[in-house]
């Protein structure tokens, strides 16, 4: 059949497509060519979550990106602030220290180029020992026990030593990546590992396959003491998290948020936030802790200013943010 569409209409349609294509290109003109997400050590939840999220964003937005091994939340704040990475993952405790100039990596420097994007999950503080050690409670940890606290300056290393000291534990402090520490525990080079990481912790799941472990819970009194002295909340590790657990285990936790350099283009951060918040099924396939990576949980950030791009998505979708908490 002969095409009866007028030439003028065809020309106008072609012009409209050209303009639309040009506009779309213009909106990305100031986007970075690639991006990096600061995570933590291999074997921990940050590395799995951050690397998987980076790949997801790269695929969805067509921008090259990936995760990078770092020392964890405290270092990620410094890397994002300095522009060494575009995005990072952090917990609220180290974030509060960073913006108030109390970061152990940069004492006196108020990190004002770090903005919140979206909530991730709660980080439980949990303790693991070999069953053969006979350690089944915090009070049974012997004086001088060799305890692995994760990478230096990580959330675990920043808070867990003080938590255990408050509970009367005397120990020999060790640092390292979670996978390495798991191997040391299995080889008898460590007595206990004090984890602060999203659950399930890959290193613990691996230990369960290879040996018998005790996942040590806090008593009610210990839990309350810690809550009164540290920026943490009550938490319960579901029994379904690990094969070892027969019932939920009492613990404490701290919220995690994804962060961005405040100077990143607003449209870029808007699209990153949009893709993340509107595809929770995909995020849960990255790591099941992303079940709480939902916009309702933005209320748990009372420390960092939200990036204007992220704030725009929340406001467009009916989630209120205090104007004073937007960069």
UniProtKB/TrEMBL annotation:
Source organism superkingdom: Bacteria
Pfam families on file: NMT1_3
UniProt keyword annotations, A-Z: Signal
Signal sequence segment: 1-26
Signal as UniProt keyword: yes
InterPro entries, per database record: TRAP_TAXI
Lineage, uppermost ranks: Bacteria, Pseudomonadati, Pseudomonadota, Gammaproteobacteria, Oceanospirillales
CDD domains listed in its UniProt record: PBP2_TAXI_TRAP_like_2
Protein name, per record: C4-dicarboxylate ABC transporter substrate-binding protein
Matches recorded under NCBIfam families: TRAP_TAXI
Keyword Signal set for record: yes
């Amino acid at each position: 059949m002969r095409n009866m569409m007028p030439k003028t209409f065809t020309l106008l349609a072609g012009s409209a497509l050209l303009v639309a294509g040009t506009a779309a290109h213009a909106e990305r003109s100031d986007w970075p060519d690639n991006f990096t997400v600061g995570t933590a050590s291999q074997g921990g939840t940050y590395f799995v979550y951050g690397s998987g999220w980076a790949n997801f964003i790269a695929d969805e937005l067509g921008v090259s990106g990936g995760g990078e091994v770092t020392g964890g939340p405290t270092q990620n704040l410094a890397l994002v602030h300095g522009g060494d990475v575009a995005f990072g993952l952090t917990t609220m405790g180290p974030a509060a220290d960073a913006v108030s100039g109390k970061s152990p990596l940069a004492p006196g420097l108020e990190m004002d180029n770090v903005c919140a994007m979206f909530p991730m999950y709660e980080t439980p503080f949990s303790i693991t020992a070999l069953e053969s050690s006979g350690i089944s409670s915090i009070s049974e940890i012997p004086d001088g026990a060799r305890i692995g606290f994760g990478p230096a300056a990580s959330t675990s290393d920043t808070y867990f030593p003080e938590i255990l000291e408050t509970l009367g534990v005397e120990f020999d402090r060790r640092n390292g990546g979670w996978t390495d520490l798991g191997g040391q525990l299995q080889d008898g080079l460590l007595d206990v590992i004090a984890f602060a990481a999203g659950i399930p912790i890959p290193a613990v799941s691996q230990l369960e396959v290879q040996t018998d472990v005790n996942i040590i819970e806090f008593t009610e009194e210990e839990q309350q003491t810690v809550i009164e002295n540290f920026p943490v909340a009550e938490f319960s590790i579901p029994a379904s998290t690990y094969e070892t657990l027969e019932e939920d285990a009492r613990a404490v936790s701290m919220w995690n948020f994804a962060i961005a350099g405040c100077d990143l283009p607003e449209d870029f951060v808007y699209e990153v936030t949009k893709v993340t918040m509107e595809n929770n099924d995909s995020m849960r396939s990255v790591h099941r802790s992303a079940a709480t990576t939902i916009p309702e949980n933005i209320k748990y950030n009372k420390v960092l200013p939200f990036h204007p791009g992220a704030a725009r998505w929340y406001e467009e979708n009916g989630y209120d943010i205090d104007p004073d908490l937007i960069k």
